[in-house]
Amino acid sequence: MGEVVSTASCRAFRAVLEASGEMLGERTLAERVSWLAAVIRQVAAGVVAGRWNRADLDRLDAGVGLDGRALPAKGWMAVRRLGWGAATPEGVYISDRVRRCAEEEAARALRLALHRRAVLAAITATWPADPGRRTDADWSAVRAALNTAVGGGVSTALIRNRTRQFRTYLDEHGLSPAGQNGQASVVDVVEVEGPPVMAAQVLLAAADRQLITLERASGTGARLRVQLPLCARPATRRDWAWHILPVPLPPQVPADASLRSPTLRVVDGQVRVDLPFTMAVPYAPATGHTVAIGFDWGINTLLVGTVGRLHDGRVEGDGRPLIYDTTTISAKLHRLRGHREALAAKRDHYATLQAGLTPSDAARHPARDAARYREVAALHERADREHARVCARIRHLNNALSWSAARWAVDQATALGASVIYLEDLATLEARGHRRGNAALSGQVRGRVVHAIRHLAAKTGLAVVTVPARGTSKYCPRCGTGTSPLHHTPAPDRLTQRGWKWAHCPHCGLSCDRDQAAAERIVSRGLLAQHHTHTDRATGTRTIRTIVEGNLARARRPRKPTRAARRARHTRTDLHPRPQTRQDRTKTGPTPKRPTRQRPTPERPAELSTTKTVSQVPDRRLVPAPTLAVGQRPAGQAPQANGPTAVRTGLVRDSHQRTGFHHVKATPVLALAEYGSGRHQATPARNA
Ligand SMILES: [Zn+2]
């Protein structure tokens, strides 16, 4: 058994003062929580600003306290061991536990700065000849440096952003990345950027029972008891009081999950309670898998997968592609990004205008200038607000799309009886650096999808393993292990042209979607190399770095005979009888009328009518189909009680009912029979 930590987004709508029993509405509660957050933010910012220099970051990095002992993992304790304890603001009374929360926040910010510093050092040490575009060698160099410095896990986007930030800094200061003596640059993160802005939040994880208690109230709620200030600047102990906050829990928190201390925030006047909880999950072994699903990253099709079975050292697939097609959402994201860039340009333009208006002309036309300044300031503010909204929209859409895709992938794996999901290693994939234009869109989402798949798979006891991406679409998955390269063509009927979408093997004649061929390679690489699976001790992520190539044979799924075929076998009649002799079809008279079927009437009930009744279900529904109780399933939400059964029985046909998006086309999640050699049910003998 393992453990998975999730965070539920909850909200507190009211509170009760413990001493007097007075009820507080959401507005009052939000005000008090934001007072507490503001005090903590001020104290934490003081600690960080005081330590924002090289010497102090070096001391934190060394990991040894004033007493010569190693620093503890808990941030607030480490800060105290270093003698950096927070100072209370003038005229404010805060308890030691509140100070702890502030110190915890400061410690997290400083430790994050250490990480950024290590990333920056690794990037400057491997500074490319052309910072705008890294070559393959540059990428491998910077990734190797980052692996040594911070143990990997740095996304490509982050590397690009840091590179851009550092390049701007160098340009502004007229510096070169290689320092004076030809050594790596001596620029530190404390020079490139100022102390980080502290978030207005209350990290109750650092507090104990003297500031907060948390317990389950009933099956669907929790009871949070916390000390809050009664005014913005509490001067004495009497300005603090115990508040009891009932917190309704969302349905994905199981009844046996253990709740952890939450973080409180105030967003748009709402009190948000980010409540972490741990739940026990089944252990997913690294080896011993026979049925697996492999997923390839497509361009517009975010994921293309296929199922594979290992039998006698051979991998068999069923030739059925599992597709999660996000073309429309990608287009939407593309439009939104263009909009975001336009708004950013507008905002910067107004900022420039604003800067030009202030100093010189003010003396000549003070009144006119002031009015114009106000006008431009208002426009700037509006553009800034709109920009923030579009950014949030993109963020939410990316997030929802990733969780929805992950939910679909894990549902497919469960329905097809797979015990492991194989994915391409994003690090080896993006280092290739040629999938441009619209393709960059899905690149942003991919990292989140992997994270979401890992999380959801862990909950269902599925293993998730990454395999090397290099060369997955180069060779034929059916016949060629490094012998016959696949031809890539634009479409199955244009095999002579060069293209991208379709794969054709001139050797064995395989003709299928390019991403499906790649997915078949991935699943066979995973299943055949499962003994080379490496599990990271710190994060628990599983990787295969060794490439074991093998072909994948496509086996047919046994088809259930149709009703007509079953009846034909039962009555020993021929299903497709051929006319023995050709009938003479020459017309000698009028065509006789077929007997008409008569509707039952009150005078002539059905049993009396001569119409023959059949037990068959009509092909077309005569009454409206019953509405299913499934409805939309929000992305990332745990399966509802009636959801998966409806999905497994194939009742839910429309993809939007399963994915949460109206325009996403996804292969339905169906539990199908086994296939290939060595399956449990033998095919019925033909001549029986
Ligand atoms: Zn082939």
The separation of the N and C termini measures 48 Å
Judged by helices, strands and strand pairing, the structural class is: alpha+beta
Query: Uncertain regions: pLDDT < 50 for 5+ in a row?
Result: 431-437, 625-632, 637-653, 680-688
Number of strands: 23
Helix count from the secondary structure assignment:
15
Would you kindly provide a written description of the structure presented here, covering whatever features stand out?
The protein has 688 residues and is of the alpha+beta class. It is 36% helix and 17% strand. The strands form four sheets. Strands 11, 12, 13, 14, 15, 16, 20, 21, 22 and 23 form a ten-stranded mixed sheet that branches. A hairpin with a 6-residue loop joins strand 18 and strand 19. Helix 3 packs across helix 4, helix 4 runs antiparallel to helix 5 and helix 4 crosses helix 6. It is globular, with a radius of gyration of 33 Å. The C terminus is likely disordered. The site of zinc ion has 9 residues, from loops.
The gist of it:
This protein has 15 helices and 23 strands.
Features:
688 residues; alpha+beta; 10-stranded mixed β-sheet; 5-stranded antiparallel β-sheet; 15 helices; binds zinc ion
Which helices and strands appear, and what pairs or packs with what?
Elements: E1 2-12, E2 15-17, E3 23-24, H1 26-50, H2 54-62, H3 75-81, H4 96-125, H5 136-150, H6 156-173, H7 189-192, E4 201-203, E5 212-218, E6 221-229, E7 240-248, E8 258-259, E9 263-267, E10 270-281, E11 291-297, E12 301-311, E13 314-317, E14 322-325, H8 327-357, H9 366-415, E15 420-424, H10 426-430, H11 439-460, E16 463-467, E17 487-489, E18 502-504, E19 511-513, H12 514-528, E20 533-535, E21 542-544, E22 552-554, H13 563-571, H14 643-648, H15 655-659, E23 665-666
Parallel strand pairs: 11-15, 13-22, 15-16, 16-21
Antiparallel strand pairs: 1-10, 2-3, 2-7, 4-9, 5-6, 6-7, 8-10, 9-10, 11-12, 12-13, 12-14, 14-23, 17-18, 18-19, 20-21
Helix pairs in contact: 1-4, 3-4, 4-5, 4-6, 8-9, 9-11
This protein binds zinc ion.
Zinc ion (ZN) binds next to loops.
